[in-house]
């Protein structure tokens, strides 16, 4: 029987939450705080979770820690959420992570952008094909940050791996996204705006139906307000939300997104929900900027 992945496709067409990974005082992962943050997302109406995403500090976690994060997420979410597990690094590591996710009951994997100084377009296809072919019963979502990649290459990948069902597109160029999606097949994939709320309105206008979010850790209702407006085509309301979150997202994006995760954790810390610590090469927010983040978080309807 051919898998249709209807549940997975529907889950991508919404707010795709990227949970933070909270650390204890000794620097290890704090499982109970992580569970509490997940419950807050689930109770807030979030139904798609991506453990081991970039907001979860994927590249700063050890293999054992990534496995733990996946296990905690699947266990805590149960049937309340569709789980999209971040995998990556070398092919054997990514395949092992994907099979681990499958064995736990996760429904999809997101393949992180290959971190390699030399990425050819055909090599990109080979990399994703190897991972997708290893877990044909899971939905596979490439995370695309490479502006040089063509839509034809994604179509080529999906021709041999029909479980490639969605795309997290994170090239900051709405016109390029519109062309890429149409070259790959606009209706063939679920298109997720991979640069979160700031880019969601422009990407939705070009065909996206979901967006990823780190901000959702702080204020689930804000992210849900935006997706509801975008689904109904109410762009004026969506842009009101955009204005509401603009400064917060500008702080995350400053200096090449140096404080992308840091600002989210600082906001959570200001609300007493987790510690502010991040791992190198990220760094805690300077004292001079903490009050502004706290004020923004306090001003949202939480």
From TrEMBL:
The keyword Lyase applies. It comes from the Bacteria. Coiled coil: none annotated. Belongs to the DapA family. This is Dihydrodipicolinate synthase family protein. It holds the Pfam family DHDPS. Keywords: Lyase. The keyword Cell membrane does not apply.
């Amino acid at each position: 029987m051919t898998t249709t992945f209807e549940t997975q496709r529907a889950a991508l067409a919404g707010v795709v939450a990227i949970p933070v990974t909270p650390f204890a005082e000794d620097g290890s992962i704090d499982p109970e705080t992580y569970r509490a943050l997940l419950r807050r997302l689930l109770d807030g109406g979030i139904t798609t979770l991506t453990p081991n995403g970039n907001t979860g500090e994927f590249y700063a976690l050890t293999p054992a820690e990534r496995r733990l994060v996946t296990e905690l997420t699947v266990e805590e979410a149960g049937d309340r959420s569709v789980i999209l597990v971040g995998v990556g690094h070398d092919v054997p590591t990514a395949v092992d992570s994907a099979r681990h996710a499958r064995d736990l009951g996760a429904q999809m994997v997101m393949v992180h952008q290959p971190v390699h100084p030399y990425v050819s377009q055909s090599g990109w296809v080979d990399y994703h094909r190897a991972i997708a072919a290893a877990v044909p019963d899971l939905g596979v979502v490439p995370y695309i940050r490479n502006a040089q990649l063509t839509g034809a290459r994604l179509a080529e990948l999906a021709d041999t791996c029909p479980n490639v069902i969605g795309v997290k597109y994170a090239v900051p160029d709405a016109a390029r996204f519109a062309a890429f999606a149409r070259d790959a097949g606009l209706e063939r994939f679920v298109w997720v705006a991979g640069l979160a709320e700031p880019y969601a309105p422009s990407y939705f206008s070009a065909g996206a139906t979901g967006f990823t979010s780190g901000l959702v850790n702080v204020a689930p209702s804000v992210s849900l307000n935006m997706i509801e407006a975008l689904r109904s085509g109410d762009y004026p309301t969506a842009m009101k939300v955009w204005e509401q979150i603009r400064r917060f997202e500008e702080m995350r994006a400053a200096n090449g997104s140096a404080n992308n995760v840091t600002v989210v954790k600082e906001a959570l810390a200001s609300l007493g929900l987790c510690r502010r610590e991040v791992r190198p090469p990220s760094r805690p927010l300077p004292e001079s900027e903490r009050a502004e983040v706290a004020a923004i978080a306090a001003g949202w309807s939480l």
